[in-house]
């Protein structure tokens, strides 16, 4: 396929999305430029800062480092896919708000996605595990203290929701 | 990135047929955590990218008669969490844990880690593997704080592989497939210090795909120690992976391999000799660490890495032997 | 005229509360649109061509092939033949095209011939760059020679702190359209919504009234985003050439990290002398710094301890072929704090004195002796100084060495010129409008809290509207002047509007307007809450009229009004553990005691302090611009080897914000910058304490730590 544009279908937040892409376009750029899914941000564009985090088949990955064409056939979840449901914030989002785990907010969607994936796999984390679990996301404003508390609070809230 | 064709074959045979005889013909895409960045920086601009993630036979981690087979597509996370590996090869588990980003662990593959290109900032800026500019040796005369402390050049970058040193210590075998067949290379021989910018840092041809690694179960006590500035995602300054065959409480034979200090994983026969026949203690481990760096030839700015490498050897030996600091 | 002063601390219902920021859900859910997120109909994408050489002359430039590239709608050259380029990544040309891919591909077709010239990019060794150094005159106070003769103890050292890059996560850039009706619509990533309008108007020679700016959110500024910049202006021209189609041009990260803002370095040889009781009598410094090609960057030394009686200072600004500095959070103060506190800690070590004692003994040399004395003691208590501090070189056995160190800060932070407008509608809805911006400091939220407090409402009853030049002008977010400015203007605007509402409602309540108050969602007669109308019922009395009143904070008048002032001090103590075998420094804890004024929202204020401390940790341990002498380029213009701390790299942070009646009476004081100042000094001093030797050059990387331990030159 390619090098010119190819028609592909991406499954994003459960919905099929038809888009025309060159093989060299990243999932992040296609999402932001062609599908108006701008929650994931382009910051380092080299897979080091996490602002572009998305879930692929439930696993957190760097959208800037995935070729859009390679994302076909996979379940892609972006922040837009779970952060608000019926206007109500997801427990991770609410916990970030409660603990002021954001300032300028540019890194925050990436953190929320990474935190959700972390909590889905580690529903009962210790403080140390939280610190270990988010090593792929950077924040320049320095919101880590709030993020740590937010993830611990979200863990409790998410367990509560499951009659644990 | 330059434009390229893209293919996503379902079988190894199809994939091999899509590769070429030159490095610019085609590139293999696994996790993409190195290739995509290299293409964005236009350090590599293949005409075709071959995605191998659909090829079932490259996946999985399983027990074999000889030991453990790790498929090239096993992700760093799969290696980190695999109980077979943790039971027999904690050196690999520790190496995987050192990749401190869950995103990279989910995307990055075992095979990709072994084949990744160096992080050398001159290389990444387009000055070549043997970085030169206007007749000057950029690394030797420039900023070499993260570069090699072993080896006589001309390659002065360090091997960036997380798993390489452990595989070399464990005597693993790497399998490569080409359109004409398969071959097996000892891990130690897979990594090569290139003599020119046209060569590669691994014994891999443009029309070959690394398919799996076999790690023999020898019962050796093994560990990896990593010295890394940040706890978050960061490149190590020096690592050491060791494998010890014990006779009672004495080391009968040892393999000591340093990482991120040379263009290849650096096997230290000196450190092995220093610890063989001895019980591992803080003192003997420290002596082995010193022996490991006796032949170090630091560049103008990276003498500090010598000490870190010695500490990594000491701590890896103690971890392998279960000796507390 | 209403009484504008803040209500008594104990009576506040909304101000002073730890409310979650109002745009929190919007941001955390990914719904917030930054200007870099905008996708407008017909939008073109811009790309930037930069020069790879640190010093060069453009011999020729040919854009003809680029202009023909499919999808390209315009090419602008900013470095025509003859231009002398003075740093690598200097902008040469800009391209606008239908897609980002097309724009970037077209860049490669621009043919530029350069004459490469010699460059200088390292300034640490002053002897090597003497020809590029411009000395300011020597400054002398008292009799330094005599003081040196009489001194009981003298400490001398060399200290260095490198250039840092702003590293905003949202890159610099704009979306801009310049339509055929000569109107410009600008969506920038900016700290200066109001003033960028005039800057852009001047730059493109369009009447200011024809320029409209709108920005909902900004992804970080830290002092680097005040101007439209060359790329913003050229994007406007590209838009004009394309018939007014919007052009989106944001810098690529590898360019962003070089030319979009950096903090000057500072190097100094410092000599301190003291009498036998530890009273500092002499400061002698030879310092130099680079602010890029045009020089600049002069740290105010000695810092905080300014009244050292005998001083001799020499400073040189060094011109290097590197990109220019921009204001950094508390410009020049981080460097000054580091140089001063490191020299003081070294003097204490030389005298075998506890540095806490030295800092305390000399507080009379500061402008706020009582404040610093109180803060030093409080910080020491929180950091368990008595239990954990030890003399240098006495950090116990084993490779892990623990140490403590002190850093101090001072800052202004008085409110800037700001006008707010408050609209009260007959249906009871309230708007507060300002041409201001929220960098993540919580500006939106504090405006709502002030408005709600003033009107007797809750924050959810207030619609805060900022980020647009259709709203009244407000100052730039720099100097920690925003909160003082916007809170004061909002206070006045809302009380002015309320006064008008009282006049409308008074007849219905049978009381003079001056006897009315707003509280708990009602308008009531003072002292007689039974005589009241609900807010909605009261506003209904407006009939078809909307009340619209403004209020302004004028800095010159602010001191007597008492709503905002400036001038805070702070002390930070760092607690680190250094592994002396690997040189790796781990943060255990930082304690911050911060002076403040009226704190409108302690939650967001504490976030500012945490964030400022984390920036200091980055600067102290791992952040630095690394230049290559041979190629003249920045080697780490990315986010891999330009290291920022991650979530596990920061240790614990303990904050004591001095919120009390006495401080509250000072009015609102900005807090964005002061806590960003002393952390590097504190950490550097903690490392020296831990390992027994001074690591002279920040950051405290394993390389620098191990080199110091083994006596190698860094």
Overall description:
The complex is a heterotrimer of chains A (164), B (325) and C (714). By secondary structure, chain A is of the alpha+beta class. Chain A contains five helices and seven strands; from the N terminus they run ββαβββββαααα. Chain A has two domains: 73 residues, Ubiquitin-like (UB roll) (Roll), CATH 3.10.20; 75 residues, DNA polymerase, domain 1. Chain A has a five-stranded mixed beta sheet with strand order 2-1-5-3-4, sandwiched between helices. Chain A has a two-stranded antiparallel ribbon with strand order 6-7. In chain A, helix 2 packs across helix 5. The radius of gyration of chain A is 16 Å and the shape is elongated. Chain B is α+β, with helices and mostly antiparallel strands and 325 residues long. The termini of chain B are far apart. In chain C, the strands form seven sheets. In chain C, strands 3-5-1-14-11-12-13 form a seven-stranded mixed beta sheet. In chain C, strands 7, 8, 9, 16, 17 and 18 form a six-stranded mixed beta sheet that branches. A four-stranded mixed beta sheet of chain C has the order 19-27-28-29. Chain C folds into three domains: 160 residues, Aldehyde oxidase/xanthine dehydrogenase, a/b hammerhead (Aldehyde Oxidoreductase, domain 3); 296 residues, Aldehyde Oxidoreductase, domain 4; 145 residues, Aldehyde oxidase/xanthine dehydrogenase, molybdopterin binding domain (Aldehyde Oxidoreductase, domain 4, 2-Layer Sandwich). Chains A and B meet through strand 4, helix 3 and helix 4 of A and strand 1, helix 2 and helix 6 of B.
């Amino acid at each position: 396929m390619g090098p010119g544009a190819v028609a592909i279908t991406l499954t994003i937040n459960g919905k099929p999305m038809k888009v025309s892409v060159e093989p060299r376009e990243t999932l992040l750029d296609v999402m932001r430029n062609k599908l108006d899914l701008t929650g994931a941000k382009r910051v380092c564009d080299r897979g080091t800062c996490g602002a572009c985090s998305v879930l692929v088949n439930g696993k957190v990955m760097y959208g800037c480092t995935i070729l859009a064409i390679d994302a076909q056939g996979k379940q892609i979840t972006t922040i837009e896919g779970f952060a608000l449901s019926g206007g109500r914030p997801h427990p991770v989002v609410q916990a970030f708000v409660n603990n002021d785990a954001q300032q300028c907010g540019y890194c925050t969607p990436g953190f929320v996605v990474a935190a959700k994936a972390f909590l889905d796999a580690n529903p009962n984390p210790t403080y140390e595990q939280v610190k270990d679990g988010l090593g792929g996301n950077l924040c320049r404003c320095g919101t880590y203290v709030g993020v740590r508390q937010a993830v611990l609070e979200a863990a409790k809230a998410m367990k509560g929701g499951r009659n644990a | 990135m330059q434009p390229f064709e893209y293919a996503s074959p379902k079988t190894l045979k199809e994939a091999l047929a899509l590769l070429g005889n030159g490095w610019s013909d085609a590139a293999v895409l696994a996790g993409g955590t190195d290739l995509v960045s290299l293409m964005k920086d236009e350090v590599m601009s293949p005409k075709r990218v071959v995605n191998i993630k659909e090829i079932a036979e490259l996946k999985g981690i399983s027990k074999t008669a000889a030991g453990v087979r790790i498929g090239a597509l096993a992700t760093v996370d799969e290696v980190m969490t695999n109980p077979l590996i943790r039971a027999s090869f904690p050196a690999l588990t520790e190496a995987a844990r050192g990749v401190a980003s869950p995103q990279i662990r989910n995307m990055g593959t075992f095979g990709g880690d072994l084949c990744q290109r160096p992080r050398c900032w001159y290389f990444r800026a387009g000055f070549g593997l043997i970085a030169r500019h206007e007749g000057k040796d950029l690394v030797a005369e420039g900023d070499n704080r993260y570069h090699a402390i072993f080896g006589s050049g001309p390659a002065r970058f360090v091997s960036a592989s997380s798993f390489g040193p452990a595989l070399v210590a464990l005597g693993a075998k790497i399998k490569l497939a080409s359109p004409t067949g398969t071959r097996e290379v000892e891990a130690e021989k897979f990594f090569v210090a290139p003599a020119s910018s046209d060569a590669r840092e691994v014994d891999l041809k443009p029309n070959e795909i690394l398919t799996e690694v076999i790690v023999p179960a020898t019962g050796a006590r093994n560990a990896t120690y990593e010295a890394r500035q940040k706890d978050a995602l960061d490149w190590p300054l020096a690592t050491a992976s060791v494998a010890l065959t014990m006779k009672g409480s004495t080391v009968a034979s040892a393999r000591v391999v340093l990482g991120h200090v040379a263009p290849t994983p650096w096997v230290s026969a000196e450190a092995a000799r220093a610890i063989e026949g001895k019980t591992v203690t803080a003192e003997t481990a420290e002596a082995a660490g010193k022996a490991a760096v006796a032949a170090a030839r630091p560049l103008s700015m990276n003498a500090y890495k010598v000490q870190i490498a010695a500490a990594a050897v000491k701590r890896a030996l103690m971890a392998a032997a279960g000796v507390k600091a | 005229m209403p009484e504008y002063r803040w209500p008594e601390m104990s009576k506040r219902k909304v101000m002073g509360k730890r409310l979650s920021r109002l745009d929190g859900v919007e941001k955390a859910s990914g719904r917030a649109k930054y200007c870099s997120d905008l996708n407008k109909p017909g939008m073109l994408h811009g790309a930037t061509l930069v020069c790879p050489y640190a010093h060069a002359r453009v011999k020729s430039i040919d854009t003809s092939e680029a202009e023909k590239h499919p999808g390209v709608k315009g090419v602008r050259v900013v470095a025509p033949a003859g231009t002398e380029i003075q740093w690598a990544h200097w902008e040469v040309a800009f391209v606008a095209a239908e897609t980002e891919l097309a724009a970037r591909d077209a860049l490669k077709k621009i043919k530029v011939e350069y004459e490469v010239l010699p460059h200088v990019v390292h300034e640490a060794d002053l002897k090597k760059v003497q020809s590029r150094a411009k000395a300011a005159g020597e400054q002398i106070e008292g009799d330094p020679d005599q003081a040196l003769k009489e001194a009981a103890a003298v400490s001398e050292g060399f200290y260095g702190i490198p250039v840092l890059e702003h590293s905003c996560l949202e890159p610099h850039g704009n979306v801009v359209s310049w339509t055929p009706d000569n109107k410009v619509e600008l969506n920038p990533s900016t700290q200066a919504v109001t003033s960028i309008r005039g800057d852009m108007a001047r730059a493109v020679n369009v009447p200011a009234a024809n320029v409209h700016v709108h920005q909902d959110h900004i992804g970080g500024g830290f002092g680097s985003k005040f101007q439209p910049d060359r790329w913003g202006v050229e994007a406007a021209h590209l838009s004009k050439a394309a018939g007014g189609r919007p052009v989106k041009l944001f810098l690529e990260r590898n360019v962003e990290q070089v030319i979009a803002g950096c903090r000057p370095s500072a190097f100094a040889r410092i000599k301190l002398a003291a009498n036998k009781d530890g009273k500092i009598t002499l400061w002698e410094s030879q310092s130099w710094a680079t602010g890029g090609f045009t020089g600049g960057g002069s740290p105010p030394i000695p810092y905080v301890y300014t009244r050292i009686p005998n001083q001799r200072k020499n400073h040189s600004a060094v011109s290097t072929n590197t990109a220019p500095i921009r204001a950094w959070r508390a410009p020049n103060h981080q460097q000054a704090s580091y140089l001063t506190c490191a020299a003081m800690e070294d003097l204490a070590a030389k005298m075998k004195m506890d540095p806490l004692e030295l800092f305390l003994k000399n507080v009379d040399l500061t402008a706020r002796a009582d404040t610093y004395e109180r803060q030093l003691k409080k910080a020491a208590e929180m950091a368990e100084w008595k239990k954990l501090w030890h003399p240098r070189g006495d950090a116990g056995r084993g490779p892990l060495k623990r140490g403590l160190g002190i850093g101090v800060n001072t800052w202004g932070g008085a409110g800037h010129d700001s006008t707010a407008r408050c609209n009260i509608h007959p249906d009871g809805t309230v708007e507060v409008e300002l041409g201001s911006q929220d960098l993540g400091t919580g500006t939106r939220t504090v405006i709502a809290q002030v408005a709600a407090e003033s009107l007797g409402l809750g924050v959810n009853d207030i619609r805060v509207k900022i980020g647009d030049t259709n709203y009244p002008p407000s100052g730039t977010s720099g100097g920690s002047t925003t909160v003082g400015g916007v809170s004061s203007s909002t206070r006045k605007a809302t009380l002015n509007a309320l006064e008008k509402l009282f006049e409308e409602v008074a007849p219905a309540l049978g009381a003079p307007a001056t006897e009315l108050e707003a509280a708990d969602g009602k308008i009531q007669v003072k002292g007689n809450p039974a005589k009241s109308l609900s807010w909605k019922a009261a506003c209904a009395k407006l009939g078809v009229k909307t009340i619209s009143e403004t209020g302004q904070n004028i800095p010159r008048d602010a001191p007597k009004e008492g709503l905002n002032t400036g001038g805070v001090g702070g002390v930070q103590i760092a607690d680190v553990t250094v592994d002396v075998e690997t040189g790796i420094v781990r943060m255990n804890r930082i304690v911050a005691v911060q002076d403040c004024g009226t704190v409108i929202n302690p939650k967001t204020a504490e976030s500012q302090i945490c964030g400022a401390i984390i920036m200091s940790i980055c600067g102290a341990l791992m952040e630095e611009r690394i230049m290559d002498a041979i190629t003249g380029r920045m080697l780490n213009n990315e986010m891999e080897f330009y290291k920022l701390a991650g979530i596990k790299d920061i240790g614990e942070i303990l904050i004591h914000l001095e919120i009390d009646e006495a401080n509250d009476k000072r009015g609102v004081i900005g807090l964005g910058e002061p806590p960003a100042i002393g952390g590097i000094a504190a950490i550097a001093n903690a490392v020296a304490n831990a390992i027994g030797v001074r690591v002279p050059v920040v950051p405290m990387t394993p390389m620098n730590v191990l080199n110091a331990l083994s006596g190698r030159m860094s």
